[in-house]
Write a structure and sequence with these properties.
alpha/beta, Metallo-beta-lactamase, Chain A, six-stranded mixed beta sheet, 12 strands, about 15% helix
């Protein structure tokens, strides 16, 4: 899975599956990015829902899976998801999971904003979205790669991110949400230094 995963900076990722190109929270896309088969958008903050970036990669057949508040702003094949929903797009299954703050007001649980589990090519990738450590993380099963925010301020810091990873028990943990709006450029390395499991630090695509 890790060789199919590309960090586009901040909280934005691309997955190059065998049959589908999947983007998660595309923002600040550079150059001429590959068109998307599936776009996942977890909530409506500007660094996650970026309509100009969606338009860069959207094609007529692109499926967009997102929350109700985001869906009202997007044209095309948009499918609304809330925590607990499961949406299948051909051979790809997307599970919507909770994402919220417990000690901050930026991402209220009542908003029903989401992270995702992407079931692709026989593996399970968890994208936490903007969240703190939440009890639901302990219920996640068989995660191959966990993408976990670690920049602090709006989400977990590196210590909380390490705790989350220990709850999730992925084969590989990948920190993100640092080096741009919040979080120093070396937060990923700091996370790897304190997390007891296997981690992988991605470099944003230039």
């Amino acid at each position: 899975m890790i060789e199919k995963l590309f960090w586009l900076g901040h909280a934005s990722f691309k997955i190059k599956g065998n049959s589908k190109i999947i983007y998660i929270d595309p923002w600040k896309l550079k150059g001429s990015p590959e068109p998307a088969d599936i776009i996942l958008i977890g909530h409506s903050h500007f660094d996650h829902l970026s309509l100009p970036d969606v338009e860069k990669i959207q094609k007529p057949a692109t499926v967009i899976i997102t929350t109700a508040d985001c869906a009202s702003q997007i044209k095309g094949d948009v499918r609304i998801a809330k925590p607990g929903d499961c949406i299948k797009v051909d051979d790809i299954t997307i599970e919507a999971v909770p994402a919220y703050n417990t000690d901050k007001a930026f991402h209220p649980k009542a908003n029903n904003w989401i992270g995702f589990i992407v079931n692709v090519d026989g593996e399970r990738l968890y994208y936490a979205s903007d969240t703190d450590v939440i009890p639901e993380m302990g219920q996640l099963k068989n995660i191959d790669v966990a993408l976990i925010p670690a920049g602090g301020t709006y989400t977990m810091d590196i210590h909380q991110a390490a705790k989350a990873a220990e709850m999730i028990k992925p084969k590989i943990a990948v920190p993100y949400h640092y080096g741009d709006i919040v979080g120093a450029a070396d937060e990923g390395k700091k996370f790897a230094d304190i997390y007891s499991g296997k981690s992988h630090i991605l470099t944003p695509l230039a």
